[in-house]
Amino acid sequence: MLKHLKILLYPFSLLYGLVMWIRNRFYDTNMLTAVEFDLPVIAVGNLSVGGTGKTPHVEHLIRILKDKYRVATLSRGYNRRSSGYLLANEASTAAQLGDEPMQFHQKFPDIEVCVGEERMLAIPQLLGERPETEVILLDDAFQHRSVKPGMNILITDYHRRFTKDHVVPFGRLREGRIGYQRANCIIVSKCPPELSNAEKAAIRQEIKPLPHQQLFFTSLKYGELYDMFSGNPVSAPEDTTVLLVCGIARPEPLLQQLKESYKNVFLLPFPDHYYYSVPDLEKINRELGNLPGNHKLVVTTEKDAVRLQLLEDRLRPMNIPIAVMPVEISFLYGEGESFNNYIFTYVDQFGSNHD
């Protein structure tokens, strides 16, 4: 029944795909003009709607660039409770910036983090306030054609590759598959760490990268649990009962990771980018209390933590033990250095070519 209902969505996908193709065609032929800026601009995004692991890839770029250059990130600030351009400061919250920009701001206080729906207007404002900026990372900007980045990085989920997907609402793509041709670099994310060379070759053949495109493969690498408020390491024995509380697009990889470390793991899911309420906290506390075991722990993601911290005054008196599971990316086949050098070459050559 559901399959037949989904088929009814296919004509709408064709229509939406056509609209996006026309829009892209206008930019490709300069009927619509994209603004270029006189500094390296790296856009990171995807063809699909959420869940590709984009955030840890942006954080990897921040890590490798921030010690050599003055870095700024610019995001739309999805689902934030503010509008317009904002530059993060010490008083900023996830409600003002959005969860991902707030996460960048907390983890990397030595870079500039800003949000703005209109990137072509936000960049001049950023440069006006922080003229020393040397590199801008555009977060989730693959479809934001009004700014022409010097480098486009496209991320596609190993489990949901764009080559096997369709345009919304029939599938999960924001535009047709042909959009991949705009990328300078394609990253297949969330791969199994043991991905074989044969499957790597098969995926390369499936994606068919163009001569100018680089192709990399990454997997998720989870870190050590830490307390959400103190930041101190959390040591939880194997018999700990874990309640995973998260509002992310795809909790399955984290759920599986926890099940490999703990015997009793339960999931309490919320919508992606969800803002928690006091009744939600009470529900979390109640769910945790109803679970079996003497040692119990709530585990959440870094994105969820910045949203939960908005209710810190209500959370602390409840004494709910909450640990955060950080995540990074790991490049397969030892290609991390090649990727880093690829990025450095672009940034350095940009400066040389514009002297």
TrEMBL record:
Annotated TM spans: none
GO CC annotation, single: plasma membrane
Q: Does the keyword ATP-binding apply?
A: yes
Q: Which SUPFAM superfamilies match?
A: P-loop containing nucleoside triphosphate hydrolases
Q: What class of enzyme is it?
A: transferase
Question: Can you provide one Gene Ontology molecular function annotated for this UniProt record?
Answer: lipid-A 4'-kinase activity
Family of this protein:
Belongs to the LpxK family.
Q: Name the job this protein performs.
A: Transfers the gamma-phosphate of ATP to the 4'-position of a tetraacyldisaccharide 1-phosphate intermediate (termed DS-1-P) to form tetraacyldisaccharide 1,4'-bis-phosphate (lipid IVA).
Any one GO biological process: lipid A biosynthetic process
Q: What is one Pfam family matched by this protein?
A: LpxK
User: Which keywords does UniProt give here?
Assistant: ATP-binding, Kinase, Lipid A biosynthesis, Lipid biosynthesis, Lipid metabolism, Nucleotide-binding, Transferase
Source organism, top-level taxon: Bacteria
Q: What is the name of the protein in this document? A: Tetraacyldisaccharide 4'-kinase
Keyword Lipid metabolism among UniProt keywords: yes
